[in-house]
Every structure is written in C-alpha cells, then in structure tokens.
C-alpha cells in the first residue's frame, strides 16, 4: 500500500502541534490579560456623574483638604460622600447661578439626594476600612491615584486581591508620613523603601494577611 | 513532636462502656434503644445523598457538566464586571450619623408581659440588631429569644400596610370620620356600649389615656385579654391578700427553690432577670461562701425550668396542688390533703423537699406557675409567709399591669356583654384575640355575629384572624417604630423610643386612644411627652431630664417598693382538694417559641428547635413513653428525610383534633401536652397552617389543663422536622462529651470532670501557629446554661443566617451556626436533662483547614478558622472532616437575593449574605473582632478585655458564654479555662479546640442520692 502521507507531513504535523499549543497558550494568555485588563476591573474609565465634579480643581486648584468632604475617613470604614449641604456651604456664595450646579441646588431645595456613580467599588464580600489605612500612613493617592490631577475621577488601580496583598505583604513600598497622607498629588521619594521601613516601625503598621481581615 | 504514645483504644474509651450497654447520656429514644435509625445522622454530616452519583450515567453526566463549567469558569472570571452601583448621600445629613458606624439607641420591648430594656443597633437609620441594656433590671445586658426575634417582626413583609374597612383600602382620616358619629352616640349613653380590649398594658401613658377616656365615657369598660397574662397569680393574690399583688423573686437569697409548675426561666417578663440570679448561685469554680441553690421542680408538663431542676417530679396537674397542700400542712397551714403522685420516688422527693425547706425556712422560695389555679397561688403565698421567706426570697409589689387581669375585665365578661347586645363599639388595641381566646369564652361567636356589635375596630401588626372579623383594621406601629412607655417586671419605668419611622404608616395604641378622645392628629411622641411632663419634677429642666431618661433607657430607682401584705386566712383555705379526673389530662402550654401564635409568622422562631423536644415548624401531642405505650403510639421512625410519626386523634370534652404524637422522655405519665399557637389561618406566608390549632379543646374556666382526654391512633403518618439527632457526635457518654457531677462530688473533688490518663499535650505534624497578638477563645459554662435558645436567635440575627423551612430541616440542613445539644441522662421515664451549646470549636489543629482544596478555610493569625465564602467551591470536604459537625452548607439559595423585600433591611451590613453552594459556620463574630481591632489600632492601644462580645455571649441571660484573649492570663476567659471544671470536646483527637466547656454541676439532695458524695474510684467521675 502506498504511503498515505508524504514525508513532509511529519514537519506539518509537528508544526500544527506547535501552532495548536501556541493558539492554546495565547487564548490562555488573552484570558489572563483580559481578567486583569481595565475592561474587567473597571480601572481607568471615568464615568458621567450628575455634576462633573473636578477633584483636580477643588483640591490642587482651590486647596480644599480631602477631609472637608470625606469627613469620616479617619474614623470609619467609609470615607463618606458629602451631603449636598457640604457643596452648598461654598456654592451658596460662589457660582450661585452656574447652570452646571443646578442639580446640586435642586437637591438642596428638594431634599432629594444626588445619585453619584460609584467609582471605586469593591465586591460586597470584601470589607475595606478607610480609617485603618489612613491612620497607618497609607495615603489617599496610593489607592485612588493622583486624585489631584483628575478632572473626573476614575478607578486608578485594579482593586484585585493581588493588588491589596502587594501592600499588605510589603507596606514599606507605600507608607508615607502621616502629615502627607491627605496629599492630593504625591510621588514617593527616591529612598521610599528606607523611609517606608522606618514608618512601618514607627506606626506599627503590621497589616494582616489572614482571610478574615477583609472577608467575613 | 511529643513522644507520648497512647493506644487509641485507651484514648477514645476513657470510661468503661461495655458495648451494648445503655449509654449514660442520650439524645433520643432511638439512641437509647441502640436503633440503627440514627446511624444515618451519625456517620454522615448531611445524610441526604446530594453529592453521590452511584449510577455510572449520573457520574458521566456530572463530569461532562463539570468539564464545561471549568472551561467557563476561566472565561467568566475574565468577563464578569461589577454591576454599576450608585452612592446616594444625604441632601442634608442628620447630626452624628457617620456612615459605617452603627449608632445604638436605648428603648424597651414588651415581648413577654413586661419591659425588657434593649439597645438597638442602627445602621444609617436602619435597625439591624437588638442587644440588652445592661442598666435595665429586666435585661441586665441580655435578652430573651423573643426580643431578638422582634427585629424580624419589624421587617416582616407580611405586616399589614394600610387602613382597611372590611377589605377595602381606606385612610386614617376616613376612619376618624367614620367613628365620630358612633362615639357621639356613645357619649350620649355615657359610653354604655363602648368597650376596649387590650393585651397586657404596663404603659402608664396608655393607662392614663384610657382613664381619661373612661372619665369621658363613665360607663365604658376596659377589658384585658392576653394568653401570657397572669390571671391566676393575680386571683391568687386576691384570695390571699385581698388585692392584686405580684411576686418578685430574690434568687440571690434562695437556697431551696420549690417550683410548682412555675416556668420562671422560660416564660414571663422577668425570665432574663430570674435566669441571671438563679444561675449566679449555680456556677462557681471554688466552693463559694454561699451554698449552691437547689431547685425542686414539680410540674405537670415539660419546661425549660424543669430541665434545670435538681429534682424533678413529673406529675398530673391535680397532684401539683396535692404537693402544695402537703407542703402547706407541713408548715402548719390548716389545709386538707390532696392527691399525691403514686410513685415511691416522688413521695421520697416530697419528703426530702419538705425537710430541706424546714431546715432553711427563710431561705426557701416557693413559686407557683400561671398554669396552676388561683388557689395554689394563694397557698404558695401563705406557705412563703409561714416559712418567713415572704420579704426575703419572695417580695410582693403592686402589679406592673395597669389593669391586672380579673374576672370583671376578662374576655369572657366582654363576650357575655357582646352576646347580650350591650356593646355598640369595640376597639381591640393589639393582640389577636379571635385566634387566642378560648372558643368557649364566646368571643369568636360574638365577633362572627354581624348583628351584635355595630363597630369593631382592630389595631394590629398583621391582617389576622381578628382583623377579618372587624369592620376596621388599623396597621399598628411596631414597638421599634413608635413612642411609648412601659414598666419592667419590678416596676422600673422606661420610655420606648422609636428607631425608624413607621414603615407602613402604622398607628400606636396611644394614637388610637387619643383619636377616641377627639384628637386624631397628635403623634405618639406628643402624647407620651405630654404625659411625662408631670412625671419629671417641675424643678428640673424637662428637656434635660427627658433626654437623660431616653438616653439611659430607664428612670432610675423607679422600681416598685415592696408592698406590705399579710395573708387573710379565710374560707379560701378550705377549698376542696382537686383530684385526678379521668385517666388522661390534656395540658395546654404556651409554645416556647411562638407563644400563643404571635410569633407564628417569624421564621427564626418557627425554625428554632424547641428547648426540650427539638421540634421545629410544628406542634404535637407530647406524651411520655409509658403513656405512649398505653395508647400504642409507636416511636418515631428516623430517616434521612425526617422523623416519621403517627398522627393521633386527641379528644377531650367532645372536641377533637388530629395531630402528630411525639414521645418525650420525662413527660408526666397520664398527661399529654399540646402547645398553643399552631394552625394559624391568617398569619402571613411563614406561619400559615404551621402546626395544629388546639384552641377548641380548651375551656375558659381552666384554660391550662383539661381532664378526661382520649388519644387514638388515626393511622396516618406524618413527617416532623426534629433536630435532636442532627449533628450527632458518637458516644457522648464514653467519650465524655458531656460531663456533669453533683455538688457533693464537686466539693470533694473540684476536678471531677478531668479524665485521668488523657494526655493534655499531643504532637502534631504541622508546625505550631505563633500568636503574637491576640489569641481568641471561648468558654461555655454548662452549669450556667439553661438551654433558653437566646444565643441561637442572637447568632441568627447578627450573622444573617438564613431560614430554610421544614422540608430542608427534615433533611438535616438547618443553617443555625450554633446548636444546643440536649442530652438526657438516666432512664426514659424520669431522665435528667443537660443542655450543651455547640458553636464552631475554632480548633488549633483544625481538621477542616487541611482538607479544603481551594484554601477557603484557613487559620488566622489570631487562631480563628476563617471561612472565605467567595473562595468556597462547595466540596464540603471540610464539613465531612469536622469532628464537631458545626459547619453548615447552603444547598440552595436560602437567603433572599432577588426580591426587593423589607427583610433585606434587617441584614447586618458587616457580614456577607451567603450565596448558594458555599459552606458557612460560626466565626466567633469576626466582624466584631475586626471592629474592635481597628478601633483600638486607630486609638493606638491594645484591645481591651471585654471589648469584644460575641452575639451569643452578649445575649446570654446567664452569662454562660465568655469570650476573650487567651494570651492575656487575666482575661475572664483565661480564668474560666483555668477552672478545674474546664474540659474540651474530643481531646483525644488532638484538634485542640479553642472553645471549651465547664462541666455542669447539679445539686441533688444527698439524702436522696446516698452514694453521690463518694465518687467512684478510677474510672471517670462523670461516667
């Protein structure tokens, strides 16, 4: 019986095995990258909000401290989104007729809440506590990005567990002096690791890695 | 590695137990009989074959499906995006609200006749959890299970939501307009036809309003109907003292407690205070200065109190009176002798009891239960007086009820008037009398007669059986929704403060009565505050005083002073002795969970295993093994799909009901018990038709017992959801799961519970965990635990635990993280009862952790066995490997994730609501641990001793549960663990549980147990 396959079929079959493996690997790689992409994690996309509130303008521009609005960031799990009243503290005096601010004034008049789109949204089974972090020298921008440069806020980090753990394992990479925690734009010093180690000891920042730290 | 070598046989068999012999401790008659039935519960954690594919077809299909889902799992994790969520801040924020921080408000709940002070946890205006108020005498920081369940009642989606006329939706304004002409007509008649019917009222403001109403309508009448009311006690006091007085017990002074059918730990507004004081004299680690108290229980049914007795006599109702008479004549009261139990044992106990009382007359407390007639109550008062204990162990005060129940204000008197056409307008302020009044009282028939009462109005939380027969139904505001005031069992006065605006525009009794007074717009707040103007001294600043009272949750020193009263010897003492009528008594009792049916629509209460029978979602004819034999009722047939029993026809006085029969060890012979509250016709989705209504069997004259019953098997079978064999651990007796001894034994050898020869330290192949910070542990004192179930309900409330329903329970799938194992000791006729709460043991060498293929259960750096729901894939290996059977699996989506029901508001935001297919278990309330840890770190300090209380610990009326840091030698839990009574479950398997127990100590009369003071040599002293 004549040979069914010519000799070069050997090479072809080897090549197709290699190609198949490559396709499989690239599918896996795609999935791997997709799961970590901004598309899946929601990072990097600013959302339309009822009022295009600019953190860039209010913090870097005007110089308002984070805690003027996010009042409970040092005491509670939630940093808290300010009530309309907080906006009106200033905007009953300035830009009182700005059409952009009409939803704010309307909310204040009617008592109906403004409905903001949540930007940094952890899954419901993860319990994050703001106070525990800011009191140990974790700055706002470490998680929220250079908020002072954001006209519209977007999620700066993946918020995936491996990202949380990177800091919980080696907090010295990120710790900063407590008086700089609220800096809206912050870049680590050249000797961050050295400073970080010192601050870690000083603040007794010993993050836990047990599951129940965040999951309960 | 330790080099201790102990043959396994020696380790696991610490006491002699010849196989085949009856076990000392047992949980069901099946187990006592050595039946094969229970093996299904013993050998598998979840007996139902949910996971096994025994046929090759099923297996292949499973693998195919799994293959597909594994492939999809990668895809879905890459493609799942978080749903968009909104943040909705206040427009104008209320003061002192910090998102993420709960606020606690002091208020009171009158769940069982008198006020219990509570602190209610509120998250952004949403009450989620009820805790006791440590300053309040009716709470002392704890609550009963009813108070815990109130939060679920508040959010019950079945609550009535609008004013209705007949069935038509109406408005409050329309109601006010409609009653005006009727009231005007009554005014002309001086209110001759005006009647109010209320449950127990302790509110001085409401009483004041009603007094004002009665002033305006002088011939109107105020009737009281409440199945939990103390009519017999009040009538007894009227016999003995000539007026209504209430007993308040001083357990701290009582060495000998004689309870005549008094379930003082299970029912009544004083049960939490009673439990605390009672158990304080039963739990200690060194022989205290004060002797341990001794409880003699004489009862004609079963009760939580009876299960804690040192000596219990299960007798017929008339024999309770007989024993009271015996006691009375022994102390020199001129009464005739009555019926006495026939058994020699009961006789000797009565003798010993009388002797005990005579040795310490002023330190004896004789108590009489509501189910006994007025005469026995009067006799009880007289006996205490004669003993000289009146004023020391038994204090009399004015009753806390504003209108103490009597013959004149009873529902029978009202029904007579209604039937005679004397009633023109009837206002029912709460309660559900149509379902809870004895039919013989004539109330239901009078309500059904459309020609009789021209205007019938019902104020109630639910559109229930009573609303159905009323013209108007007004939705009632829940106690957590409205202002009010109430008295605790000792008279202490509190203001009831709302936590949330009425969800369904409900009205309070205050508002309804005020509208009868012609003012339909005043709010409860205005009414209550106005009434309190006079109560706060004029000299003081009212606002300040008012705020202080609301903040503290009580008015200091407002308890009633002791009343001075002497019994009036009279004709009452010559009453003819009751005798046993017929050969079967039917005892009617309030259900330990749903009372008279008022908690019938509460899933937590229906699913709570009843303290003794461990039945859920049902009531049954409870019968002793001996009496069961008499009526040839077979024992329940246990299976992996529930316990199947025979239904019987229970007949008494010409009426009959068909009910399942359930054999209860220790139940009195020739008596059957049926619990009230079953078979509700209009209760809502949860309680509709659960159990059987037994009201038709009762009589108005003797509502708690009826003689001349007859039981016949009706041939049909019925499945019960009974949890007594669930989560069973093998060989409770031989492996020393439950350890108990007598007080004499304890005095002779405080370490009686230790098993000699059992190694304390065994090696492990795994490296030891270092604990540099805190190391959490728990101790449960079995001497203090009374088996009241409050811990289970508190846990359910705190940890968002789902209700699964009877069908799932029958398959052993209840979700409660904490269970109370009830063990019987001795024979099936008169066994002793022990309660053992079993939460997760949080083992050091946890068998669950090492078998999880996905590391969803891991060891924390503080020693907890963490459970990570989002990582769990539901293999159930952990639960299979758990020696204590404390893990619970979500076979279905038990928690409601989809419907937008008010129940979601109850959920604790600090705890994940679990989904289908994940394992869950007790976490030591890790959310509370985390909260305390973060607070302490923020404040730069260590976690304080006592700062963290688990939900079960906080609610425990007897403080049997202690939680804390084992690294701190001074912590309460470390001290408990150093007690000679300390032991752990299954020490020999080297799991090193964090949760340990203190062996129970009972105090039987040494004269009745001659050998008890000499512990047997060598073998385990417990066994």
Please give the alpha-carbon distance between the first and last residues of chain B: 31 Å
Major pleated sheet of chain A:
none
Number of helices of chain B: 29
Tell me the helix content of chain B: 25-40%
Strand content of chain A: under 5%
| Elements of chain A, N to C (H/E) | HHHHHHEHHHH
Number of strands of chain A: 1
Total strands of chain B: the figure is: 41
Any overview of this molecule?
The complex is a heterodimer of chains A (216) and B (1023). Chain A has 216 residues and is an all-alpha fold. Chain A has 10 helices and 1 strand, in the order ααααααβαααα. Chain A has helices at 8-35, 38-41, 55-61, 66-69, 84-91, 102-110, 130-134, 140-144, 161-169, 192-202; one strand at residues 116-117. Chain B is globular. In chain B, strand 19 and strand 20 form a beta hairpin. In chain B, strands 21, 22, 23, 24, 25, 26, 27, 28 and 29 form a 9-stranded mixed beta sheet that branches. Chain B has a 7-stranded mixed beta sheet with strand order 7-6-18-17-16-8-9, sandwiched between helices. A 4-stranded parallel beta sheet of chain B has the order 13-12-11-14. Classes of the chains: A mainly alpha (216), B alpha/beta (1023). At the A-B interface, helix 1, helix 6 and strand 1 of A face helix 4, strand 2 and helix 27 of B.
Q: What can be said about this structure in brief?
A:
With 216 residues, chain A is mainly alpha-helical.
Topology:
The complex is a heterodimer of chains A (216) and B (1023).
Chain A: H1 8-35, H2 38-41, H3 55-61, H4 66-69, H5 84-91, H6 102-110, E1 116-117, H7 130-134, H8 140-144, H9 161-169, H10 192-202
Helix pairs in contact in A: 5-6
Chain B: H1 8-12, E1 25-26, H2 29-32, H3 39-43, H4 56-79, E2 86-87, E3 103-109, E4 116-123, E5 126-132, H5 145-154, E6 163-165, E7 168-170, H6 172-188, E8 194-198, H7 204-216, E9 221-224, H8 231-241, E10 246-249, E11 256-260, H9 271-280, E12 294-299, H10 304-307, E13 311-314, H11 317-330, H12 344-359, E14 364-368, H13 374-387, E15 394-397, H14 411-419, E16 425-429, H15 433-436, H16 443-448, E17 455-460, H17 465-468, E18 472-475, E19 484-487, E20 493-496, H18 509-516, H19 524-533, H20 542-552, E21 585-589, H21 603-607, E22 615-616, E23 621-623, H22 625-630, E24 637-639, E25 642-652, E26 655-663, E27 671-675, E28 705-707, E29 710-722, E30 740-742, H23 743-748, E31 776-781, H24 790-798, H25 806-810, E32 819-825, E33 832-838, E34 857-859, E35 865-867, H26 877-881, E36 888-889, E37 919-920, H27 926-938, H28 951-955, E38 961-965, H29 972-977, E39 982-983, E40 995-998, E41 1000-1002
Parallel strand pairs in B: 8-9, 8-16, 11-12, 11-14, 12-13, 16-17, 17-18, 21-27, 23-26, 30-41, 31-40
Antiparallel strand pairs in B: 1-32, 3-4, 4-5, 6-7, 6-18, 10-15, 19-20, 21-28, 22-29, 23-27, 24-25, 25-26, 25-29, 31-38, 32-33, 34-35, 36-37, 39-40
Helix pairs in contact in B: 5-24, 7-18, 8-13, 11-13
């Amino acid at each position: 019986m004549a040979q069914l396959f010519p000799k070069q079929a050997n090479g072809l079959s080897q090549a197709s095995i290699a190609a198949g493996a490559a396709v499989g690997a690239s599918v896996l790689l795609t999935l791997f990258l997709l799961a970590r992409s901004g598309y899946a994690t929601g990072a990097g996309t600013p959302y339309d909000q009822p009022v295009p509130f600019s953190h860039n303008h209010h913090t870097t521009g005007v110089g308002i401290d984070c805690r003027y609005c996010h009042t409970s960031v040092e005491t509670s799990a939630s940093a808290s989104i300010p009530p309309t009243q907080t906006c009106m503290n200033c905007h009953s005096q300035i830009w009182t007729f700005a059409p952009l601010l009409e939803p704010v004034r309307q909310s204040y008049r009617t008592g109906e809440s403004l409905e903001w789109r949540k930007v940094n949204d952890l899954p419901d089974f993860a319990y994050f506590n703001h106070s525990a972090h800011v009191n140990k020298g974790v700055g706002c921008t470490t998680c929220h990005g250079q908020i002072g440069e954001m006209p519209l806020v977007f999620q700066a980090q993946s918020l995936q567990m491996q990202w949380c753990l990177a800091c919980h394992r080696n907090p010295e990479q990120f710790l900063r002096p407590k008086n700089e925690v609220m800096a809206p734009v912050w870049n680590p010093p050249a000797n961050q690791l050295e400073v970080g180690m010192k601050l870690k000891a000083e603040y007794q920042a010993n993050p836990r890695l047990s599951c129940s730290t965040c999951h309960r | 590695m330790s080099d201790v070598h102990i043959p396994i046989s020696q380790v696991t068999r610490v006491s002699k137990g010849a196989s085949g012999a009856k076990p000392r401790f047992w949980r069901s008659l099946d187990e006592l009989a050595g039946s094969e039935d229970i093996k299904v519960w013993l050998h598998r954690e979840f007996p139902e074959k949910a996971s096994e594919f025994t046929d090759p077809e099923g297996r292949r299909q499973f693998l195919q499906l799994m293959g597909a889902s594994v492939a999809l799992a990668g895809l879905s994790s890459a493609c799942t995006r978080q749903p968009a969520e909104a943040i909705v801040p206040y427009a104008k924020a209320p003061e002192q609200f910090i998102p993420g921080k709960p606020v606690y408000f002091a208020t009171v709940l009158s769940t069982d006749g008198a006020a219990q002070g509570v602190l209610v946890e509120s998250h952004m205006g949403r009450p989620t959890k009820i805790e006791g108020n440590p300053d309040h005498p009716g709470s002392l920081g704890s609550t009963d299970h009813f108070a815990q369940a109130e939060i679920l009642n508040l959010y019950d989606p079945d609550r009535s939501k609008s004013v209705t006329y007949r069935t038509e939706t109406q408005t409050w304004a329309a109601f006010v307009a409609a009653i005006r002409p009727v009231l005007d007509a009554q005014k002309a008649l001086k209110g001759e036809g005006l009647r109010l019917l209320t449950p127990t009222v302790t509110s001085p403001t409401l009483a004041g309003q009603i007094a004002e109403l009665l002033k305006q309508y002088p011939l109107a009448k105020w009737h009281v109907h409440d199945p939990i009311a103390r009519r017999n006690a009040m009538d007894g006091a009227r016999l003995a003292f000539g007026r209504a007085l209430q007993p308040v017990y001083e357990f701290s002074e009582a060495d000998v407690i004689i309870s005549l059918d008094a379930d003082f730990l299970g029912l009544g507004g004083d049960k939490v205070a009673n439990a605390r004081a009672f158990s304080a004299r039963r739990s200690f680690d060194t022989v205290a200065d004060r002797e341990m108290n001794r409880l003699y229980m004489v009862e004609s049914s079963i009760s939580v109190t009876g299960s804690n007795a040192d000596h219990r006599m299960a007798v017929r109702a008339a024999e309770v009176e007989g024993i009271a008479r015996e006691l009375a004549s022994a102390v020199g009261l001129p009464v005739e002798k009555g019926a006495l139990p026939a058994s020699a044992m009961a006789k000797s106990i009565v003798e010993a009891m009388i002797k005990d009382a005579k040795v310490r007359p002023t330190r004896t407390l004789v108590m009489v239960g509501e189910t006994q007639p007025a005469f026995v109550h009067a006799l009880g008062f007289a006996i205490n007086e004669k003993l000289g204990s009146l004023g020391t162990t038994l204090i009399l005060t004015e009753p806390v009820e504003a209108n103490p129940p009597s013959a004149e204000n009873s529902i029978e008197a009202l029904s007579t008037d209604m039937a005679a056409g004397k009633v023109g307008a009837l206002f029912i302020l709460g309660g559900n009398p149509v379902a809870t009044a004895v039919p013989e009282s004539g109330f239901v028939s009078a309500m059904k007669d459309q020609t009789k009462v021209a205007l019938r109005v019902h104020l109630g939380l639910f559109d229930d059986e009573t609303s159905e027969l009323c013209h108007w139904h007004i939705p009632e505001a829940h106690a957590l929704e409205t202002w009010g005031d109430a008295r605790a069992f000792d008279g202490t006065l509190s203001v009831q403060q709302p936590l949330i605006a009425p969800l369904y525009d409900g009205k309070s009794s205050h508002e309804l009565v005020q509208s009868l007074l012609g003012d339909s717009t005043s709010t409860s707040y205005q009414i209550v505050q106005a009434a309190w103007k006079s109560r706060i001294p004029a000299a003081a600043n009212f606002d300040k005083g008012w705020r202080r009272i609301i903040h503290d949750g009580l008015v200091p020193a407002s308890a009633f002073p002791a009343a001075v009263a002497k019994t009036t010897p009279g004709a009452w003492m010559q009453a003819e002795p009751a005798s046993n009528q017929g050969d079967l008594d039917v005892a009617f009792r309030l259900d330990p969970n749903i009372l008279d049916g008022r908690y019938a629509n509460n899933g937590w209460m229906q699913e709570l295993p009843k303290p003794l029978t461990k039945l859920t979602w049902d009531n049954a004819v409870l019968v002793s093994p001996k009496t069961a034999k008499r009526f040839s009722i077979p024992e329940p047939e246990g299976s992996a799909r529930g316990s199947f029993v025979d239904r019987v026809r229970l007949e008494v006085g010409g009426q009959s009901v068909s009910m399942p029969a359930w054999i209860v060890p220790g139940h009195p012979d020739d008596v059957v018990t049926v619990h009230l509250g079953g078979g509700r016709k209009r209760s809502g989705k949860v309680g509709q038709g659960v159990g059987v209504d037994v009201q038709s069997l009762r009589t108005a004259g003797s509502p708690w017992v009826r003689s001349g019953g007859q039981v016949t098997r009706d041939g049909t079978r019925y499945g019960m959801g009974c949890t007594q064999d669930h989560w069973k651990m093998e060989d409770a007796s031989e492996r020393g799961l439950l350890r108990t001894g007598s007080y004499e034994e304890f005095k002779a050898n405080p370490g009686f519970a230790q098993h000699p020869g059992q190694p304390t330290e065994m090696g492990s192949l795994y490296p030891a965990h270092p604990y540099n910070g805190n190391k959490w542990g728990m101790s449960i004192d079995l001497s203090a635990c009374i088996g009241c179930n409050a811990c289970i309900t508190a846990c359910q409330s705190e940890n968002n635990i789902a209700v699964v329903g009877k069908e799932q329970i029958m398959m052993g799938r209840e979700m409660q993280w904490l269970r109370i194992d009830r063990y019987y000791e001795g024979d099936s006729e008169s066994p002793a009862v022990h309660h053992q709460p079993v939460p997760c043991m949080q083992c050091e060498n946890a068998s669950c952790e090492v078998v999880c293929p996905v590391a969803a259960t891991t060891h924390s750096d503080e020693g907890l066995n963490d459970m990570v729901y989002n990582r769990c894939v539901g293999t159930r290996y952990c639960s299979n490997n758990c020696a204590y059977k404390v893990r619970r699996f979500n076979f279905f989506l038990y928690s409601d994730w989809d419907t937008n029901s008010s129940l979601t508001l109850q959920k604790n935001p600090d705890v994940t609501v679990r989904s289908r297919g994940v394992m869950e278990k007790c976490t030591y309330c890790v959310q509370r641990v985390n909260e305390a840890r973060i607070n302490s770190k923020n404040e730069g300090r260590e976690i304080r001793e006592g700062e963290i209380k688990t939900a079960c610990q906080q609610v425990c009326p007897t403080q049997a549960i202690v939680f804390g840091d084992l690294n701190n030698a001074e912590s309460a839990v470390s001290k408990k663990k150093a007690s000679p009574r300390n032991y752990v479950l299954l020490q020999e398997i080297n799991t090193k549980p964090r949760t340990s127990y203190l062996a129970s100590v009972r105090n039987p009369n040494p004269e009745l147990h001659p050998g008890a003071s000499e512990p047997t040599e060598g073998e385990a002293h417990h066994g």
